[in-house]
Design a protein that fits this description.
Length: about 210
């Protein structure tokens, strides 16, 4: 992501620190390069925040997710900033999103093993409407999944893509084997922010595969 665009987001989240605490991840964050989550805030609300730091290549792919609530004023300001810097904008009810590991659900994710000698065959079902789309995550874990009506498993969000590139952008030994991925995105990464204007929830993501 352009450094100027990144600075705009960093300044936004550092400008209001009342009632916030430092964002601290568990030790698994060392699996990732420092700049992998450069678009994440330095602070989160004291009242509530939730995060996942996963190096899982056996069932899914490495990813870092962060979720919290913000007030309506800050949400609107964030949305305005994201409209300026996003490389793409989607809605979770879009019927043709390009979703990574879209086959996973909160009940099956641990059963589908990519690293088996003979892994299960799963067709991605790539469609022409996927052309020129950037990939977004599937929030399949039980504490994150909100609906089964779309493959992101988020309900009522706008997705702001900040950066996404295909190819290998990490030590290849830390990446999954490319199974169950869409055409042209066997490996790659996706970074962005999802916002829900009804619930005031903000989700930051950084996924790599």
């Amino acid at each position: 992501m352009n450094i100027i665009k990144l600075l705009l987001l960093v300044v936004f989240f550092q400008s209001c620190s009342f009632g916030e605490k430092e964002l601290v991840f568990n030790k698994e964050i060392e699996y990732f390069d420092r700049d992998f989550i450069s678009h994440f805030p330095k602070k989160v609300p004291i009242e509530y925040s939730q995060d996942v730091v996963s190096p899982n290549v056996r069932n899914s792919h490495p990813h870092v997710w962060l979720k919290f609530y913000i007030d309506e004023t800050r949400l609107n300001k964030l949305k305005d900033s994201l409209n300026e810097v996003a490389i793409a904008k989607y809605r979770t009810d879009d019927s043709c999103l390009l979703v990574i590991d879209k086959h996973l659900t909160k009940t099956n994710w641990y059963k589908i093993v990519k690293t088996k000698r003979m892994p299960k065959k799963i067709n991605y079902n790539y469609r022409p409407c996927h052309d020129n789309k950037y990939p977004v995550p599937n929030f399949y874990l039980s504490d994150w999944s909100e609906t089964t009506k779309n493959p992101t498993q988020l309900d009522g969000y706008k997705l702001f893509l900040l950066d996404a590139k295909s190819g290998i952008h990490m030590d290849s030994t830390k990446l999954p084997n490319g199974l169950y991925t869409p055409k042209g995105w066997e490996h790659g990464y996706s970074k962005g922010i999802a916002i829900n204007e009804k619930t005031n929830v903000v989700i930051f993501w950084a996924d790599i595969w």
